[in-house]
Amino acid sequence: MWLNPEEVLLKNALKLWITERSNDYFLLQRRRGHGESTGKITGLLVGALDTVLDSNARVTPFRILHQIPGSQISWVIASGAAIEEVNRHWDWLTRNLLHSLSVFENKDDLASFVKGKVKGLIAEELRGRQAAQEDDPERFREALLKFELHFALPPTEKLVTYFSCCCWKGRVPRQGFLYLSSNHVCFYSFLLGKEVKFVIPWAEVVRLERVSSGLMHEAVRLVTRQKVREFSMFLNRDEAFRVLAQLCDIALRRLLDSEGLELDRTLLQTTTINKRMLEEQALREYVLALFRLPRSERLHEVASCSVWTPHARSHTAGTLYTTDQYLCFCSREEGTCTLLLPLCEVLSIEKAESTSVLPNPVIVSVRSKKAFQFIELQDREELVENLSVRLRALHWRVSVFRDKRSSKRSVTSPMPYYTFYYDTSLSDEEEIEEQVLRNTVNSEALMTAFHQNQPGANGNKSLEKVKERLWEDHFSEFGRGVHMFRTEKIQRLVAMGIPESLRGELWMTLSDACSELESHEGYYSSMVQKSMGQSTLATDEIERDLHRSLPDHPAFQNPTGIAALRRVLTAYAHRNPKIGYCQSMNILASVLLLYAREEEAFWLLVCVCERMLPDYFNRRVIGAQVDQSVFEELIHERLPDLAEHFPDLSSLSSVSLSWFLTLFLSVLPFSSAVRVVDCFFFSGIRAIFQLGLSVLEANTAQLCTSTDEGQALMILTGFLELVGTDEAPSVPLTPPPLSPASEDSNLPLCTRYTNITDLINEAYEKFGDVSVQQIERLRCRHRIQVLQTHEDTTKENALRLVSPEVSMSAENLSDAYDLFKTEHLISLYWGDSSSVAAAEASSWRQTDLGRSFTERQYRLDRAQFKSLYCLLLPWSVSCEQHTDTLGNRTFALLSHNHDCLVSFKEFAMWLDTLYCGELNEKIRLLYRLHIPPALNESEEDPSLLKSPLLSSNRPLYVARPEAEETGEGKSYQEQLKQMLKDLVKEKEKDVEKPLPLMNQREFIQFCKTLYSLFHGNQEENELFQAIATVTSLVLQIGEAGHQGSKEEVRQEVTRDVPESDWTISFAQILASLLTEQPLVNFFEKPTELAARLASAKVKQYHQRAALLSLQHKVR
């Protein structure tokens, strides 16, 4: 490796280097102790010194110095870990430079010439390499070479960063380097002649945490399913922990989650990930969460500046963030003052004259005839230019979209009518009226027509007027619309409750759903039109839940409200099929429809599901579970007494999960719950965390005296039921009954009525410092644990599904699953993007709905299966080409449905037959490998099998279900019943089904396979003699059958066989093999599966890594 020339005053300081080769201008030196035949103490000490001191001096074992005759100064110009690498550099110097250096008379010119040449070589080497992207390319190149040398991973394994640290083994620290790559965390240490290194895939990390105890002060603990590793003595532990958590989170979301959690596309390309990108991604996630922007937004510029705030009559310092379609400002203290400017609202961005009072000002004008002034902007010219380019592009897209919309309006009716057919028992007139209600989009909020009667209505009206006046005053001072200043004052107004007349408008403003509505004119109508009349699983679930949504509210006791709710939910399920419909969405959509117009309610639902609560509404509610785990940590941190009483906080999480999924709508009285939704649209998920902590803090004393989970549940439920508002105090008709447990413990009955405004204000005051940045960091770490918990559940389900089908032990089955899964992950680490399995991972939901999620989770293609086949085959096959052929046949046999993929169930049953099956089962498997579909006629070609084609003269033994022929005329239920009957029949006759006969060519292949299995065995001669006897016997039987016993043979045949064919049956081959005891002993000899699985696990990584490295070199 060429190095930037570095001056060395003493060529052999402390005699640490030994000169191997030299001339007048260059020296090749070896580090003392390296390569010596005996372990001398000097060599051990030098190695320990190099590791412990973490020196920037070139501590690789070989180096090249440039020297000038007559001078004591030299320069290190190259180094290497192997003598071959340094010799190549030495040969280049002697061949290209040595003859040219003698012409220089001036020593300075000589040194400058050599330095320039070396720097030119370094520049060429850096070009196109990842080191050029790092802050210190030279040191990173050195670390990259060490990483490649120590761990021998394929070249596609991208090193992201590295840290110097100690790895603890008991109470003994090992000083070394922690290397973090795109798929693995690796550690290497060499101390006093002892080498320690290990590689941990991110997919095996189940937990990351900080620990501080004893000698391990401020350590990072990395927990896998097998071991616990602890690292300390980082120069910057916080940075190391953040990068560890971020890389692990990205890898798990990319590798383990088949549901497709939201992940930036750039992170899917592992070869482009570096430390700088991780920092940018962390900042982007924070900005998206803070301003609740669309997940597709990209962060462009981040600039410190100050904005003129008219309400404070001063400039407020903070940070400006620019994305694809937004300008965002946040004060230095999060939440003090924020500003959101959608570019669709911006008219112009201009530079103003810079003065000492207003340095580098920029004026942003919006359509509401207001302007915002930003000052103290660094790189103002470039910032304004970039923003202007994006603004012009946005205005052009909007104008094109409007032109298209206007042209469509001229040829279509302005009020589309949507047809949606239902089976009803209504009369014709009632049915027509019902159809109109179902398909007419409401133009006003449901609350205007269906107002829920509440006591004290007159008092409510006066209080509403007071609130409206306060908000009008606020609008006049802070602005109105999405670009109004959001300060602590608006937070206090929201806590008091938004007046009903302004609630819909402010929800749209605070969530920025109004920008989506304006930029997608007509979108909702088109979604309603496209979704109406469709029958899917989502629409079935929606129909089931329609009448469960706020059943006590008059708006949803009426067909108008039900029809509006159906349209909103169905349109969203059509817009986002990945989410479709999830429970609790109906409750949320119902509340949105009460205070917003139908189209507005749709875009509010879009904002909640896709911006404000990402990953909440999917099949496994990953986002909600992650936030539950974050909530538990906040309880440990902020409510230690409660955490001490409940060592396992999962009991409280079972209660609080509904708080997060329904935003307290399912547990609070309606009037109080709507106030929580107000806070949610202003503060985001942070408001739910704060309110949840406040509820638990208010009930800590009672919860700490509870004796079981049921009692704790009753305490919280009773408290929440009695949370009221000034307008509608919550007073239950009858007091809640006491459970027997509470009577025994003499707990006081909860009769304390709490005002929701007081509860919200307490949440802000006591837990207001729970910031968005803290939540995002905790989410990153806790998502690791949640995803791994789901992975464990998936494994348990897979083992439960396969266990009845095999006879191997539970431990071996578990190890086989881990091996199978690792092979799949290796292909994702370093495999070809065109791999069948990689393509299958993204399309399984649409193409293979006949299998359960557990069966589809991991499957292997041909290359992956053959890799495991070679590792797990119990018999050593002498010919490598024959092993490859058998692997292809086995894959074709297991992939019987011709999807070119093998599931874990199929793999486990094959492995069980080899190691735990009876003799006849093993012979049956070998027999099937030598007849179609495993064997095909094109195999005479020595090239590898292309695809499992069927023999032209031998039909595949598959019974076609009758349902396929007459399915068109049957109903869905009848087809399902017929399918179940066919499955039962197949299961009954699976073992008893006779096998097709084997012809002479296939039998010869069968014998060749047996000969290859016996080669190298200790009883090789006896086995060869036995198989020769069996072969002769079977040939005689076949010949006899060919000549005169065809009638007896045909009783077993399940297909038409020409009379001229020589055939033999499986039963005849099995009977012949049983006559030879050596053959019986060979196939009945037990083979230890556990040992073979353990050996395969060790070899799996090294074998695939070496193969891929070789392929990369060949390319």
UniProtKB/TrEMBL annotation:
InterPro entries: EF-hand-dom_pair, GRAM, PH-like_dom_sf, Rab-GAP-TBC_dom, Rab-GAP_TBC_sf. PROSITE patterns: TBC_RABGAP. One of its GO terms (biological process) is system process. Residues 497-684 form the Rab-GAP TBC domain. The lineage of its organism: Eukaryota, Metazoa, Chordata, Craniata, Vertebrata. This is TBC1 domain family member 8. It comes from Neogobius melanostomus. Pfam families: GRAM, RabGAP-TBC. PANTHER family: PROTEIN VASCULAR ASSOCIATED DEATH 1, CHLOROPLASTIC (PTHR47666), TBC1 DOMAIN FAMILY MEMBER 8 ISOFORM X1 (PTHR47666:SF2). GO terms for molecular function: GTPase activator activity. SUPFAM superfamilies: EF-hand (SSF47473), Ypt/Rab-GAP domain of gyp1p (SSF47923). Keywords: GTPase activation, Repeat.
